[in-house]
Amino acid sequence: MALRTIITYPHPVLRQKAEPITDFDQELITLVEDMADTMYHAPGVGLAANQIGVARQVVVVDRSAADNERSFITLINPVITAGEGSVVDDEGCLSVIECYSKVKRFQKIHVTALDIDGNVLDFDAEDRYARIIQHEVDHLLGTLFIDRLSSLKRALYKKKLKRLLQEEV
Ligand code: NI
User: Fold this and answer.
1) What's residue 64's pLDDT?
2) Domains and their CATH numbers in the chain
3) Cα(141) to centroid of ligand 1, in Å?
């Protein structure tokens, strides 16, 4: 188990397009375990590899909402192949400090990805689970949820962040 440092906006790695995974090896297993540990420690409900400075197409998403056990799904090279409906709900991000806002997402999505062994995953996701997957897949494309806010809201956040970062010094 190893906790990794979560990188925060405006670090440039969050803007990098993540590269696909081609080797399903021990290095990948370690990366995924570290990501899960880091996500649960934060605590968060999803984490993309670029949030810990690794620009590869790997995300972990918590699935333990129903029970209390630690249970998460690993999506390698995920692609959202279809989306329908739309829901506006609160969103935040471990890499975007002190920011929570309403974001519009598909209500239902179809996802194709690989699991940690390289097996094909092909499934539908809805509601909160679909929202988290959309948020994490955005990360792999270098997109943050604040990019989906109005330009006014984004400008206000940037101003607030500047103030917060100055207070830290
Ligand atoms: Ni995020």
Assistant:
1) 76
2) 12-168 (3.90.45.10)
3) 12
